[in-house]
Specification:
By secondary structure, this protein is α+β, with helices and mostly antiparallel strands. It has three domains: about 80 residues, Acyl-CoA dehydrogenase/oxidase, N-terminal domain (Butyryl-Coa Dehydrogenase, subunit A, domain 1, Orthogonal Bundle); about 110 residues, Beta Barrel (Butyryl-CoA Dehydrogenase, subunit A, domain 2), CATH 2.40.110; about 160 residues, Up-down Bundle (Butyryl-CoA Dehydrogenase, subunit A, domain 3), CATH 1.20.140. It contains eleven helices and ten strands. The strands form three sheets. It has a four-stranded mixed beta sheet with strand order 1-4-5-8. It is globular, with a radius of gyration of 22 Å.
Length: about 400
């Protein structure tokens, strides 16, 4: 690794830290600081506007579209300082992190001018329409169709596991626009309005009674002809770019949510006496070493970007990092539930207050199934080896595209 923070990046760090101290609520940095539910709601309503006023939203984006054009190390420092303070850094994950960068990379000038400023101002929210009941890991097997009718695309089909669909303004959706082309070749990437007749959204109720995912049904839904990103039938390469953004992490901060969570698990083991069990101690030591590897891998990824050192294999690091942290989290959550013992089967969440779940933000326990922070994290960890590319598919990608191994035989 070859990583040095330049002097101007450290000066920028002081600027970010000063702004946060001036704009976060009084007492934010005090030990034991808490907000009521109504205070949290009020804070969330005003925070996006403050971020926009400070020009912190998507600050690495080009200045001509409203960003600050920050260089890489300044963007790293920005992420570090927001993480240090515990302040929210984005308005809308799907807009800020996924579709926004994809539009910047693949969009026409008109598309950039139409959507990027609205994303930066937090005026529109997005959801991702990729997975289908019969097209998850085999995404190219999707069946949702879009047919051109004058100046509009007419969509018919179904998407599933669509986070945020219940209140999103737009969906970036993959649809088959040429049914006669090979399956990877006949797909287009559409930016489709959600608030219209022909789109039905149904919540998917989860085991803890929450409903963060949705099914989306298209029945003659309409999308403007010009809202195709990357050209008609060019959607596969655009989708791969989006998935690349999803699989990326903040190089020097991505591991820290796992570090904080592990500290809590260790404290629980000390409190209930399981820390004296050699197997538990070994499990915790192994988990600690895995978190340290995440830290080093993040630094390696950043160093390779800064130095242009292709020998480090940026693509390989991205794929292996996704497998590594998602499988780690699944395993450490199982260890945590073992440490909790029978007490882990008792629902101890507080439905009357918001509690911070590391990595996911503030959540309220559901009144019908008041899961604790640990239980919520355990449930969510079950999905992490799946979304953003399953671990099994990622292994195939690394084996075939990075190691040059023969392709896996296909059943057809």
């Amino acid at each position: 690794m070859d990583l040095t923070y330049p002097a101007d990046a450290e000066e920028f760090r002081a600027e970010v830290r000063s702004w946060l101290e001036e704009n976060l609520p009084a007492g934010w940095f005090d030990e034991g600081f808490e907000m009521t539910l109504e205070e949290r709601k009020a804070f969330n309503r005003g925070w996006t506007a403050k971020l926009h006023e400070g020009n912190w939203l998507c600050a690495s984006w080009p200045t001509e579209y409203g960003g600050r054009g920050l260089p890489t190390m300044h963007a790293v420092v920005l992420a570090e300082e927001f993480h240090r303070s515990g302040a929210p850094m984005r308005a809308d994950f799907f807009g800020d992190t996924l579709v926004g960068p994809t539009i910047l990379q693949w969009g026409t000038e008109d598309q950039k001018q139409e959507f990027i400023p609205k994303i930066l101002r937090g005026e529109i929210s997005w959801c991702q329409g990729f997975s289908e009941p019969d097209a998850g890991s085999d995404l190219a097997g999707l069946k949702t169709r879009a047919e051109l009718d004058g100046d509009e695309w007419v969509l018919n089909g179904q998407k599933i596991w669509t986070t945020q669909a219940g209140f999103a303004d737009y969906i970036f959706v993959l649809a088959r626009t040429d049914p006669d082309a090979p399956k990877h070749k006949g797909i287009s990437y559409l930016l489709c309005p959600m608030k219209q007749p022909g789109i039905e959204v149904r919540p998917i109720k989860q085991i803890d009674a929450s409903a963060e995912f949705y099914e989306v049904f298209f029945t003659d839904a309409r999308c403007p002809k010009d809202n195709v990103l990357g050209g008609v039938n060019g959607g596969w390469k655009v989708a791969m770019a989006t998935l690349g953004f999803e699989r990326g992490t903040s190089a020097t901060t991505g591991y820290r949510r796992f570090e904080k969570e592990l500290e809590g698990i260790v404290e629980m083991a000390k409190a209930n006496g399981t820390a004296e069990d050699p197997k538990v101690r070994q499990g915790l030591a192994h988990a600690w070493s895995m978190v340290q590897i995440m830290k080093v891998n993040g630094l390696r990824s950043l160093s390779s970007v800064l130095t242009g050192n292709k020998d480090l294999g940026v693509a390989a690091l991205g794929a292996t990092n996704k497998m590594f942290w998602s499988e780690y989290h699944r395993d450490v959550m199982e260890l945590a539930m073992d440490i909790a013992g029978m007490g882990g089967q008792i629902l101890t969440g507080n439905a009357a207050a918001e509690e911070a779940v590391p990595g996911y933000g503030a959540r309220r326990a559901n009144e019908d199934y008041p899961a604790s922070i640990l239980q919520s994290a355990f449930f969510f960890s079950r999905s992490e080896t799946i979304w953003g590319g399953t671990a099994q598919i990622q292994r195939n990608i690394v084996g075939e595209r990075v190691l040059g191994l023969p392709k896996e035989p296909r059943p057809d």
